[in-house]
Amino acid sequence: MHALRKALTATAAALVAVVGSVAVTAPASAAAGCRVDYTVASQWPGGFNAAVQVTNLGDPLTSWDLRFSFGAGQTVTQLWNGTVTQTASAVSVRNAAYNGTVATNGTASFGFNGTFTGSNPVPTAFTLNGVACTGAPVVPTSTPSTSPTATPTQSPRPTSTPTTTPTPVPSAGPVTADPARLVAEMGQGWNLGNQLEASIDGMPSETAWGNPVITGALLDRVKASGFDTVRIPVSYLGKIGAAPDYTVDSAWLARIQQVVDLAYDRGLYVVINMHGDGYKSVSGAWLICDASGQEQIRTKYQKVWQQVATTFKDYDGRLVLESMNENFDGQYGTPTEPCYSNINAYNQVFVDTVRRTGGTNASRWLLVPGWNTNIDYTTGGYGFTIPTDQYRSSAIPSADKRIMISVHYYDPWDFTGTESGATTQWGPNVTDPSRSATWGDHVHMENQLKKVHDAFVVKGYPVFIGEYGSIDKTSADPTNNRYRADYARTLVTLAKQYGAATAYWDNGYNGVYGFGLFDRQSATVTQQGIITAITGS
User: Domain CBM2, which positions (predicted)?
Assistant: First the structure.
């Protein structure tokens, strides 16, 4: 979605990410062990956000108490997904009522805001339930000596995990070859919007637009609500170094991978893209199709995707890479030929680059958009071309496609996005026609989805409606949520009929003109009616 349609109040000025992994044990009465990932996800003068994830490598836990000490006088000011006690530098975090039970290889997560003066080092030692860190699972002394000493196998993640954490076992799951099966498996998706694509003055930060640090508890709630796929928009912007290497900041890339893992390790499909780098309205944007120096732009684009694709090359087929977002020349009118040619060129560079990194990237599904992800301008003969796929694995049968087409759907914008209380109802069940748009009804919706079906699905290219949704206008019309649910239900139903998977746009904002379905701070549901309309859960 265009940044101007989704920006929230900025609360942070910069981001500094540090990933630390420490193994800790549970009480010695049982086989124990765990990994702690402590991340400073964003930092500004005198304050910071941190995310902590504990992976239990031992016997199941029914409650937990994680303790550590700050090394430079930091103070926790606000914590979510747990309760905190701090005495001087010593911190104790106990589970909340809903996340105390942690299965073997399961995780518990919490986040907090804190203050600091001078420096903000990551804690170096942890204890879990009173037992000091050991670096490996611990078994009680009564356990037979033949008990394995190696770290138990975790939920599969690839070997490209940052070297600051123990190397997990890579997943060797196959890529789903059949397009219809892929669409069915991706099913109903949800966007983690306004997070990893958020930025201030050209510098990405997951809390820059007012959302809290992303936690496993949030992704647990998303999955429990019935969603099958999480789309994670990503901006790189000022995290990209200078020519000729265009090196992506390692801490930012590690944080992207951490967030991907939060969804991937829960068995969800995951889609990641390059999001805000192609908007003229975003400070520091550079992937601009009508800018001068297109050769340099393509080189930079290639270098960034090479690094990202290499990071994720061993993830299995549940990871889908998307070349870009709503990339266009800043105008919503008819696309210009030179600009469309450049967008096609970006898509081709993306496909070639990802395939050449090898691993699962040689065969995974890749997602590409047309002009502004607009259905008419992608299907209607305005210049969109599907990239060739010459570097894909030779093991893929020649008739198989491994490229998906990305479109977005927000018709009619009067209902879905215009920040006004004038148009609050949609569909055949409206009770007040004066509150309904004069265009964009359910018949129009079906006609648009039939266009992508006829242009792509029948040719073996599945379609992903990567964004759709509508803003909250209940302040103007208390019945608005009924029509928001009708809109979502109709879109999802028609998408299934015409061979497309879907992902609802959620910007994390609840309230007047918000798209939010969840409270990300508390990891709770805020719009169950719309979620039920989408997932049936």
Answer: 27-136
